[in-house]
Design goal:
It is a single chain. The chain has 2 helices and 6 strands. The chain starts with 7 loop residues before the first strand and ends with a helix. A 6-stranded mixed beta sheet has the order 1-2-3-4-5-6, covered by helices on one side. The chain is 20% helix and 39% strand. It is α+β, with helices and mostly antiparallel strands and 105 residues long. It is globular.
């Protein structure tokens, strides 16, 4: 999806409720702040509310602009609105170009 390799962290460690967790992928902006969190599941794992709760718990600490979940067959991206008070849902993985358009530097 065109993401710069230098902005991608895999198995990124974070602390949530006193526990150490790891998000699968974290994409940062030009200043190193969290821009997108990605949770990857196996194809046989259905994407459900538990998956979204998992990525939301990571976001509680990271406060990214986009949350993406994928099992390789289905993909969903939740995009925060400008006030971080609501989301819009896309049934796709948002490309780097789209992110730059939606959240300009």
């Amino acid at each position: 999806q065109g993401y710069p390799k230098g902005r991608i962290a895999v198995e990124y460690s974070l602390k949530y409720n006193g526990l150490f967790k790891r998000c699968d992928i974290l994409v940062t902006d030009q200043l190193g702040a969290p821009l997108c969190i990605v949770e990857c599941k196996a194809p046989e794992v259905s994407l459900n509310m538990n998956t979204f709760h998992q990525i939301a718990s990571y976001d509680h600490t990271l406060n990214a602009r986009v949350l993406t979940v994928s099992n390789g067959l289905q993909h969903f991206s939740l995009l925060k609105n400008s006030e971080n008070k609501g989301y819009s849902l896309k049934e796709t993985i948002v490309s780097w170009e789209e992110l730059l358009t939606m959240f300009p530097a």
